TrEMBL record:
GO molecular function annotation: DNA binding
Record keyword tRNA-binding present: no
Lineage: Bacteria, Bacillati, Bacillota, Bacilli, Bacillales
PROSITE patterns, per database record: HTH_TETR_2
InterPro entries the UniProt entry points to: Homeodomain-like_sf, HTH_TetR
DNA-binding region range list: 32-51
Record's protein name: TetR family transcriptional regulator
Keywords, ordered alphabetically: DNA-binding
Residue span, HTH tetR-type domain: 9-69
Superkingdom field: Bacteria
Length: 221
């Protein structure tokens, strides 16, 4: 790696580390360019020499808080005997971690980033490639796709290898699942209902399993 590339990578890590510290100490809603710059030892404006928007830096930092999900997901998938079971279990793992850290997962999967999320994610893994070490080939495609609808749909479509399923029903059920997760996460963030993470997981998974019954009973003809 050229010296200039090493310098850029080092600067990116300075700012990401500073952002992670602020999130840990004050919460993600308190992150600002000024605070990041002060903690990293640079002016806040210097950040924009390396990140187009503050949301991109927050995205990078939020990935650090998703390591628990990335590490636990393979164990959840291994418990499934079929792809339909793996699909449900993958959502159970995702709900468990996202509802425990709603601001983090909002930054990763819902917040406006100003550009294609897949480009930002690819940039992240180009810097932090070590995050992929030890992950199965079944998991890696999910990580490289920050769009919840398409990444979960890819896993659900594998179920067609095991049984006849209607393509439109697959797409509809998958969309229902994503919308249920988004609705619950928004409810948690807005504090419109008193609900702890465990209860949120239970309620969401109940609806997801009901949606799967629709898929299992669909006529593929």
């Amino acid at each position: 790696m050229a010296r200039s590339q090493l310098q850029i990578k080092r600067m990116l890590q300075y700012f990401v580390d500073a952002t992670v510290e602020i999130i840990e100490e004050e919460g993600i809603e308190q992150v600002s360019a000024r605070k990041i710059g002060q903690k990293a030892g640079y002016t806040g404006s210097t950040i924009y020499n390396y990140f187009e928007e503050l949301s991109h830096l927050i995205f990078f930092a939020s990935m650090r808080f998703a390591t628990g999900y990335l590490q636990e997901l393979p164990d959840y998938l291994e418990r499934g005997q079929t792809y339909l079971e793996k699909y449900v279990l993958s959502w159970e793992c995702f709900c468990k971690h996202s509802f425990a850290q709603p601001q983090i997962y909002h930054a990763l999967f819902i917040a406006d980033l100003g550009k294609k999320p897949e480009d930002i994610l690819a940039h992240y893994f180009s810097i932090y490639s070590s995050d992929l070490i030890g992950l199965t080939e079944e998991i890696k495609p999910l990580l490289y796709n920050p769009d919840l609808t398409s990444r979960s749909l890819a896993l659900l479509k594998l179920a067609k290898k095991e049984r006849e399923l209607d393509d439109q029903t697959i797409a509809d059920v998958n969309e229902m699942t994503v919308l249920m997760w988004e609705g619950m996460l928004t409810t948690i963030l807005n504090k419109r209902r008193e609900m702890d993470p465990e209860e949120a997981v239970d309620k969401t998974m109940k609806h997801i399993r009901n949606a799967m019954i629709i898929l299992e009973n669909s006529d593929p003809r």
